[in-house]
Structure formats: C-alpha cells, structure tokens
C-alpha cells in the first residue's frame, strides 16, 4: 500500500475528477428531463459541490506538477501527447461546467441553450476521461499496459459519479425525476470492479522484468482489495436501502475511500520494462 503513496496528489486528482465527471453526467441526465423551477434551482445549487470537488482535484494535480506554470507548459504538446490532451480537455470541461453553473444559478440560462450546453460539456467530460485513462496505458509499464487500466478508471467514473450524483440529487423535495436506476448501475459497477480485482490479482504473478516481480510491488494487494470491495459493498447497500441525506453522504465517503485504496495500489504497481518482461 505504501508503494503508491508517493503519488498522493495524482491519486486524489484522478479519483475526484473521475467522480465529478460521473456526477455531472448524472446531473445532465436529470436536467435534460422536464423539471419544475424549484427542482431546477435545487439541482443547480448542489451542482456547486461537484465543481468544488473537481476544483480540488485540479489543485491536487498542480501540487503534483509543482507549480501552475508547469501545467501551462504541459499544454505545449496538445494533439501529440496524452498528458497535454488530458490537461487541455480537463480545463475545457471545468470552464464549460463552471460557466454553465454560473449562468444557470443566476437564472440567465435559456432552456434550449442550457440543454445543448449540458450535452456538449458532458461529451467534453467523456473525452477528458478517455485522455486521462490513456495517459497510463504505457507499453513501457507492463503492469498498466492492459485493458484493466482504462476499465478501472471508467469504473471509478461509474461508482464515484453515481454515488455522488445520487447523494446530491435524491434529497430534492421538489424532484420530478426518479433515480432508482442509479442503485442497480452502482451494484453492477461494484461487481465489475470485483471481477477486475480478481483477474488482476491472478495475473500479477506472471508479470516481471529482469529486476522486479509485479506481485512483490504490492504484497498487501489481496487484503487491501478485500477492504476496498467491502467498502464499496457497504456503500451499495446504503444507497439501495436509505434515502437519508447523512446515510447517502456516508455512502459517498465509503465509495471515495474504496476508490482511493484501489488507485493507491494502482500507482504502487508502477514498474518499467527491464531487460525482459514475462507475461
């Protein structure tokens, strides 16, 4: 577990950004449906929480880079570098989402433009997630160079976004929408995470370089992943059984904790190709 803690800023950036994008997609789905004015005002108020979490994620990424100037320098290779593409698409998503919220909270957003804006912003968010996942899809890092890497990132978008979106939107007393579908999708997301965990755990013993064994990088992989799945499982039960705002908040905390554990182990598995790789 300790092996991945040196990348703590990136751990928080990826989990928070992915969860925020997932939640924004839930908000978009709800807002594209017809809402009464009171419900819409509530939705726009709580959307601020999503933006705050996204902002905290970007602060964490800047801490990793060392200074805001390095973030700007990273944009020099947009189109040629996945890292540059990630930063650019993330910045565009943040700006679009922030401007939408500001105009909407001031009640100045025309209905038709608002729906188009939400759709465009959501598409940019998905592009951001694609770029983020493929930053780590590196042939020189055998533990990351598999379909499990983008899948793990996308599943954080699912479980983190669904938990956060549900916790923020369900307490809306004026709502005309139904979110029962969130519970089922969340459970499916947890099941897929469990399958990925088992598959990855079984395959680690087959990955090595001339100087490193992948399994030796994270000796506590099994107990920490069991803890992660337990946290996600408890969160799934809380989301399914309760509509109490405090309980739903606890489900979000448990989800974030589980995904932070998973992401820490992910960074702990970093190893480069040596003189040979077996697999």
From TrEMBL:
<dbReference type="GO" id="GO:0005886">
    <property type="term" value="C:plasma membrane"/>
</dbReference>
<keyword id="KW-1133">Transmembrane helix</keyword>
<dbReference type="GO" id="GO:0009390">
    <property type="term" value="C:dimethyl sulfoxide reductase complex"/>
</dbReference>
<feature type="transmembrane region" description="Helical">
    <location>
        <begin position="221"/>
        <end position="240"/>
    </location>
</feature>
<feature type="transmembrane region" description="Helical">
    <location>
        <begin position="87"/>
        <end position="104"/>
    </location>
</feature>
<feature type="transmembrane region" description="Helical">
    <location>
        <begin position="247"/>
        <end position="269"/>
    </location>
</feature>
<feature type="transmembrane region" description="Helical">
    <location>
        <begin position="12"/>
        <end position="34"/>
    </location>
</feature>
<keyword id="KW-0472">Membrane</keyword>
<feature type="transmembrane region" description="Helical">
    <location>
        <begin position="181"/>
        <end position="201"/>
    </location>
</feature>
<dbReference type="GO" id="GO:0009389">
    <property type="term" value="F:dimethyl sulfoxide reductase activity"/>
</dbReference>
<feature type="transmembrane region" description="Helical">
    <location>
        <begin position="151"/>
        <end position="169"/>
    </location>
</feature>
<protein>
    <submittedName>
        <fullName>Anaerobic dimethyl sulfoxide reductase chain C</fullName>
    </submittedName>
</protein>
<dbReference type="GO" id="GO:0019645">
    <property type="term" value="P:anaerobic electron transport chain"/>
</dbReference>
<dbReference type="Pfam" id="PF04976">
    <property type="entry name" value="DmsC"/>
</dbReference>
<dbReference type="InterPro" id="IPR007059">
    <property type="entry name" value="DmsC"/>
</dbReference>
<feature type="transmembrane region" description="Helical">
    <location>
        <begin position="116"/>
        <end position="139"/>
    </location>
</feature>
<keyword id="KW-0812">Transmembrane</keyword>
<feature type="transmembrane region" description="Helical">
    <location>
        <begin position="46"/>
        <end position="67"/>
    </location>
</feature>
């Amino acid at each position: 577990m300790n092996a991945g803690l040196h990348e703590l800023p990136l751990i928080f950036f990826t989990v928070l950004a992915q969860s925020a994008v997932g939640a924004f997609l839930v908000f978009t789905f709800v807002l594209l449906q017809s809402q009464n004015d009171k419900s819409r005002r509530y939705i726009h108020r709580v959307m601020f929480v999503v933006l705050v979490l996204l902002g905290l994620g970007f602060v964490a990424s800047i801490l990793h880079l060392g200074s805001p100037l390095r973030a700007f320098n990273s944009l020099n290779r947009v189109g040629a570098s996945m890292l540059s593409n990630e930063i650019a698409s993330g910045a565009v998503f943040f700006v679009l989402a922030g401007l939408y919220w500001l105009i909407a909270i001031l009640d100045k957003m025309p209905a038709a433009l608002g729906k188009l804006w939400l759709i465009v912003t959501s598409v940019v968010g998905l592009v951001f997630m694609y770029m983020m996942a493929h930053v780590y899809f590196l042939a020189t890092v055998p533990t990351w160079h598999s379909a499990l890497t983008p899948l793990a990132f996308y599943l954080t978008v699912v479980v983190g976004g669904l938990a956060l979106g549900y916790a923020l939107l369900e307490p809306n007393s004026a709502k005309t929408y139904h979110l029962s579908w969130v519970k089922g999708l969340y459970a499916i997301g947890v099941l897929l995470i469990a399958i990925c965990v088992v598959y990855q755990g079984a395959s680690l013993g087959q990955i090595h370089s001339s100087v490193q064994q992948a399994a030796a990088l994270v000796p506590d992989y099994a107990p920490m992943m069991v803890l992660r799945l337990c946290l996600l499982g408890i969160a799934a039960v809380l989301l399914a059984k309760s509509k109490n705002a405090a309980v739903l908040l606890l489900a979000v905390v448990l989800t974030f904790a589980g995904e932070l554990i998973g992401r820490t182990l992910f960074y702990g598995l970093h190893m480069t190709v040596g003189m040979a790789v077996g697999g």
